[in-house]
Protein 1
Amino acid sequence: MAVLRRAAEFGLSARGMQPNLVAKEPYKTFSDTQNHWAASIITQMSAYCSVASSLNEIGNRFAPDDSAKRNYAAAATLRMLKCVKAQ
């Protein structure tokens, strides 16, 4: 999520915009991120076009310490790109 956040900020800057990620939807609360070092980034990216979403798009777990599966990473990257383009 940290990489996707920086990529979104870069994308906005490259388009001549301020690199401020504006929440597009309500923040999601994940059951397993409260004490994680990236909790604030995960929460921020959940409101930015659902870039951060639940594990397998089901329930309320994010699994921040598990390796990202290729399909999840691809979907999150695509959501980030679409959100930057729409801003």
Protein 2
Amino acid sequence: MNKPIPEKLSSQINAGVKLAIAKAIERHRKLGESISIWQDGQVVTLTAEQIPPLDSTVSHSE
């Protein structure tokens, strides 16, 4: 039987996943590559110019 993940560990995992996603999106923006996202029930493709820059408050060292 699986034991529940402790709340602190779960929060750390969520933060790590969000940071990884933000870095991947930023990499696409810098390389001039588009991304597809789910928005308002539809798949929308954003060009690199439409991707907002990574927020400077996100840690880049982790």
Protein 3
Amino acid sequence: MLVLGGLAGFVLLVYVAVVLGGGVLIGHTSSPHVGLSVLATAVVALGFEPVQSWLEDVVSQLVRAGRLSPYDVLSRFSAALTSTYANEELPVRMAKVLADGTGAAGAQVWLVVDDRLTLAASWPPGAGSAVGAPGAGSVPGRRELPVRQAGDLLGVLAIQERDDVPLSPVEERLFAGLADQAGLVLRGARLRAELGRRFQELSTRAEELRISRQRLVDAQDAERRRLERDIHDGAQQHLVALAVNLRLAHTLAGRSPERADRLIAAQGPAATATIDTLISLSRGIYPSLLVDEGLVAALRTAISTSPVPVELHEVGTGRYSAEIEAAAYFCVLEALQNAAKHSSARSIRVELRGDPDRLTAIVGDDGSGIDPRTTASGAGLANMRDRVEAVGGTLTIETAPGRGTIVEARLPCLHIPDRQKG
């Protein structure tokens, strides 16, 4: 009505200005001049459309607070669908058009992704908390419309009306019109969301595979180092004993042939035990006796072939975890090997003490000892320390020239009384 009134005023103004005003100027006031009437008609015809557009803009500013008419909103939204906007920007454009066209306090575009509603865009930015999620309950001034295409629910358009300013019938029709046109946009947005989620899943899986491969490589390296260490600590001890006993037999061959024969005969079982140990270690398995009967039984068998007399004492020991028993076993074997090879010891004492939260293994010899300040730590000591510290234990070595060596390994652990033989 305002636009029509403005146009009527425009026609009247042109008639008064051109016909009446022009007649006064040319001295023709008795009746309208035909020429001036034709001129006024031409001016009205030429200026009618520009004036109409201007009046519509003015009325839009006054009545709709600067908002576009519903027709213009739908036209601009249709143009946006075919414009050069990036596909990921279309939900945002839709939310903005929806909020601007209806004058709502906020608007949201929700997508159905994996059967769940996901917020795709909101306008103004950050309006999500003001509008809320679809189906969140009865909220005054909240409007929702589902968006469907070929019977498939693609999403929901939601707006929050301003306080005491409900949607007019025209704005409600605009809301419905936008929902009708939104199907194509939401279908594309849902496909992009699903592709993005799938890409994220594949990226996560690729990272998990990379970490898994790294763990396998690390495990293989660790197993190789463990096997090398076990061969050094276990089988090499038997081989050292064989070498020492064979040298002793060679020495005795001249002055005590019978004793030499007995010593050589005893090396057959020792060689068999060495072969069995190598086979077990090559398969990555600890000595079967250690697994089946525990630390004390395994050590009794191991020290039986020592070239130096070994005395074993144990107090309060039982069964422990495989890691603890292996650490104690190979640590003791390494200490026995070092004593036999380097200390010229005449006797060795091995002591095992079991407490509720600790297993202590002590190996002491009466050999020559070493000076830690001048003697470099060899691979044997490093292996012992690595084994003990790997299970959270501590290793100490007390030695001095001429006073022997004491190696003490303290391993934190829980006693396992129900791990019995068999």
